[in-house]
Amino acid sequence: MDLIHRVAELRARLAGEPSVALVPTMGNLHAGHLSLVAEAGRHAGCVVTSIFVNRLQFEPGGDFDRYPRTLEGDCAALDRAGCQVVFAPDEAELYPEPQEIRIVPPESARQLCGDFRPGHFEGVATVVAKLFNIVAPHTAVFGRKDYQQLFVIRALVRQLNYPVAIVGAETVREPDGLALSSRNGYLSSEERTEAVRLNRNLRRIKDLVESGRRDFGALCAFAIKDLTSAGWRVDYVALRNQSGLAPPGPGDRDLVVLGAAWIGKTRLIDNLDIRA
Asked: For residues 73 and 88, is the Cβ–Cβ distance under 8 A?
């Protein structure tokens, strides 16, 4: 496996590759990330995993400075997972001058997480656009746990005509249902036990909607009340259609329930697909 820090060196390394799949990450890798690498390997002969903690996607007061940087361990895990190339630039390499040109995300990015993380999706779309230009992948793999992010990336590819196939990989979970996340490492033992409550509330909504319930507002309000009463600070619990990430209309059947909430100082997100 090759560890590369420079854009020019990466382009030279990939010049002769007939097919390349990209897995963008911020590092501190877990089994969920490695599942993305495995998925990428099914789509291309060369898998490139990028590791870059992107300052642009952290809101003011966010956890940019304390986000774990674990490059050595990440590289060892990626080598075992069959990754061919790790691209780990520093800020000066990826942003050699102030990034004044940025990608404006679609209107759908201004709700849900966009309401609570100003500038986040602009930062995500900008760094992903740069990575697409640098790596020139045929395929890019993103986790479905970050559902709204995946939606924004698909719009980016469509509207800017990137020749990149976007693959959404299924969320990897702990046995109790908690979605794997690098931020799970922030949780105390008591918070980790409690953390599954978010997924349980989303699963309750999924089960009820699939059994015929259409009182979406009431179902989400119940989940918010349950989380709040247990000490969580809820950003949102919401039902949306999958086609436009809009509130579902009478004819919408392919839905998604999404939630974001704080337990202690840790923000967790999750979502589940629904066939109503």
From this structure: no
Q: Is 33 a catalytic residue?
A: yes
Q: What is the pLDDT of residues 232-251, one digit of tens each?
A: 999 999 999 999 999 999 99
Cα–Cα distance for residue pair 139/159, rounded to 1 Å: 17
Q: Are 122 and 33 in contact (CB under 8 A)?
A: no
Instruction: List the domain boundaries for the chain.
Output: 2-169, 182-275
CATH code of the region 182-275: 3.30.1300.10
**CA 105 and chain centroid, separation:** 15
Tokens of 267: 């923000």
pTM listed for this prediction: 0.95
For the structural domain made of 2-169, what CATH number should be given?
3.40.50.620
Catalytic choice (5, 30, 33, 120): 33
22, burial (CB in 10 Å: exposed 0-12, middle 13-18, buried 19+) = buried
Burial 235-270 (b: 16+ CB within 10 A, else e): bbbbbbbbeebeebeeebeebbbbbbbebeebbbbb
